[in-house]
Amino acid sequence: MAYNENLAIRIRERLFELPNIEEKQMMGGLVFMVNNKMCVGIIKDELMCRIDPARHETEVEKNGCRTMDFTHRPMKGYILIEDAGMRSKKEFDYWIDLALEFNKRAKASKKKK
User: Fold this and answer.
1) CATH class of 5-103
2) Closest CA to 12 of 35, 30, 27
């Protein structure tokens, strides 16, 4: 499954100056790990953001945003934003900042042996 390379470039440019960024092919797309924790990514043409689950219901009401339902299981705290919700730099930065803010408190997944 391919992902939107232009969106990947936007994310790379936005995260460029941050330390501890790693890109991983995952879920048929691309994920950006921040401090060894999933933060943002791309699934097809949509931006995936890991956000505070307490803000989930409020954020999915915004334009172009929906709950990530990978394998038909809704995942609270994970959202997908289509192009309509991130066309401007201000909109795009809002979603990235939201994910980065939660990343500071998010728990890293356990390492597989």
Assistant:
1) alpha beta
2) 30
Q: What contacts 90, CB < 8 A, 6 or more positions away? A: none
pTM of the predicted structure, to 2 decimals: 0.91
3-state SS assignment for residue 100: helix
> Which tokens sit at 53?
């689950």
Could you state, in order of their start, the residue ranges of all structural domains in the chain? 5-103
Taking only the tens place, the pLDDT of each residue in 49-95 is 999 999 999 999 999 999 999 778 899 999 999 999 999 999 999 99
Q: Can you list the positions of beta strands (E) in 27-76?
A: 29-34, 37-43, 46-50, 65-67
Contacts of residue 31, defined as CB under 8 A and 6 or more positions apart, other chains included, come to 23, 24, 25, 38, 40, 41, 42, 48
